[in-house]
Write a structure and sequence with these properties.
Layout lengths: L17 H29 L1 H26 L4 H46 L4 H9 L1 H11 L5 H30 L1 H9 L4 H42 L5 H11 L6 H14 L3 H30 L4 H44 L1
Helix pairs in contact: 2-3, 2-6, 2-8, 3-4, 3-9, 8-9, 8-11, 8-12, 9-10, 10-11, 11-12
C-alpha cells in the first residue's frame, strides 16, 4: 500500500511574508556587522599608539625571559630573579648615562664659551668661515630668524619640550609594562592558552613557547650586534685619536639597538666629534660608518638573526624594509619577531595541512 502524498501545484505562490522577514533579518545583521567593523577600526585607530607600546613591552619581556629562566635554573625564585634582571638593566643604563653625559656637558660648555670667537671669525672676511658667512649670510639669517620670532622661538621650544616629554612618558610606560609582563609572564601565558580548545592546547602551547624563545633570541641577537658596533667604534676612535672614545662607543652601542637608523645616527654624531680633530679624521670616520652599515645590514644582522631567531637572511632584510615602511622605527624593531612567528606558523601549521589534504 503506497502512502498518499499531497501534491503541491507548481504554480502555487510561496507562503506569504517569509521573504520579507528573511531579507529584513539579513539586512539587519549585515548593517550591524558593518557598524561593528567601523567601530573596531575607529577604536584601533585611536589606541594604535598605546597598542604599539604594549606590544613593545611584551617583546622586551620575552627578550628578558631567558635571563630570568637561567637564574631560576640556578635556584632563584621568580620574583628575586626578575628583581635581579631589572636591577642589572637599571645599573647598565645608569652607567651608560654616567659615561655619556659628562662629555656632552663638557662639549656644550666649550661651545658656549667659543661662541664669541666664532662670531668674530664669522665677521672676519680674512678667514674661510668669514668668507663663507659673507657668501651665504649665515649670521644675518640667524639673527633675522631670532629677531623675527620676537627673541626666542617659543613655539619651537614648546614643540621640542612636548616631544621630549612624550618620549619620556612612552619610555616610562614601556618600562613599567615590561616589569609587569616579566613578573607575571607564566600566568599570562596560561591565561592566553585557555582561549584555545583543549584538544589543540598542547600544540598551541608548543608553538607559543617556541615563538617566545625566538623573540628572546632576537633581543639577544640585537644586543650582540650593538656590542659589536660599540666595540668597533671604540677601537676605531682609539686608533685615530678621537677624544671620548669610551663614551662614543657606548653611545653608538645604545643607538644601534634602534633598527635601520640607529647606527646611522651614531655614525653621524661620531663624525661630527671627529670633525673637531681634523677634516681627514672626520672623512675617515664617515667612510668607516658607511662600510660598517653595509656590513651590519647585509652580513652581520642577517647571520646573527639566522642563528638566534632561525629566520633566513633574505626574510630578515625584507621584514626590516616592510616594517620600517609601515611603522617607522617601531615597525623595524617588531618586524623580525613578526617574521619569526609567521615563518614558524607557516612551516609548522600551514604547510603540514596543505601536504595532508
Amino acid at each position: 500500500m503506497t502512502a498518499q502524498v499531497d501534491a503541491v501545484p507548481a504554480d502555487s505562490p510561496p507562503p506569504r511574508g517569509w521573504p520579507k522577514r528573511r531579507i529584513f533579518s539579513a539586512s539587519f545583521v549585515a548593517a550591524m556587522a558593518v557598524a561593528l567593523a567601523y567601530l573596531t577600526l575607529r577604536t584601533l585607530a585611536h589606541v594604535g599608539a598605546e597598542l604599539l607600546l604594549i606590544v613593545l613591552a611584551a617583546v622586551f619581556a620575552l627578550g628578558l625571559e631567558p635571563v630570568v629562566s637561567w637564574l631560576m635554573r640556578r635556584g632563584m625564585r621568580r620574583a628575586p630573579a626578575v628583581a635581579v634582571v631589572i636591577a642589572g638593566f637599571i645599573l647598565a643604563l645608569v652607567g651608560t648615562f654616567a659615561a655619556i653625559i659628562p662629555p656632552i656637558v663638557t662639549q656644550v660648555s666649550q661651545f658656549v664659551r667659543a661662541i664669541p670667537g666664532i662670531t668674530r671669525d664669522l665677521q672676519d672676511h680674512s678667514t674661510w668661515i668669514g668668507r663663507l658667512n659673507s657668501h651665504y649670510h649665515v649670521l644675518d639669517n640667524l639673527r633675522g630668524k631670532i629677531e623675527g620670532g620676537g627673541g626666542l622661538p617659543l613655539g619651537g621650544l614648546l614643540n621640542v619640550g612636548a616631544a621630549i616629554f612624550g618620549t619620556f612618558a612612552s619610555v616610562l610606560t614601556v618600562s613599567v609594562l615590561t616589569v609587569y609582563f616579566l613578573a607575571n609572564l607564566p600566568s599570562i601565558r596560561r591565561a592566553a592558552y585557555r582561549f584555545v580548545p583543549a584538544g589543540r592546547r598542547a600544540r598551541a602551547q608548543a608553538l607559543g613557547d617556541e615563538i617566545g624563545t625566538r623573540i628572546g633570541g632576537y633581543v639577544l641577537g640585537n644586543v650582540i650586534t650593538s656590542v659589536v658596533a660599540g666595540v668597533g667604534t671604540f677601537v676605531f676612535l682609539e686608533i685615530v685619536s678621537v677624544p671620548y672614545a669610551v663614551a662614543l662607543g657606548l653611545l653608538v652601542a645604545v643607538l644601534d639597538l634602534i633598527p635601520v637608523v640607529g647606527s646611522s645616527i651614531g655614525g653621524a654624531l661620531v663624525t661630527l666629534v671627529a670633525l673637531t680633530v681634523s677634516v681627514p679624521v672626520a672623512i675617515a670616520s664617515l667612510v668607516f660608518y658607511i662600510l660598517y652599515r653595509l656590513l651590519e645590514d647585509y652580513l652581520l644582522m642577517p647571520r646573527v638573526m639566522d642563528r638566534a631567531v632561525h629566520v633566513p637572511p633574505v626574510l630578515t632584510i625584507v621584514a626590516l624594509l616592510i616594517g620600517g615602511s609601515l611603522l617607522g622605527i617601531v615597525g623595524a624593531f617588531l618586524a623580525i619577531p613578526a617574521a619569526a612567528a609567521l615563518e614558524l606558523i607557516v612551516t609548522e601549521v600551514v604547510w603540514p595541512k596543505i601536504e595532508s589534504s
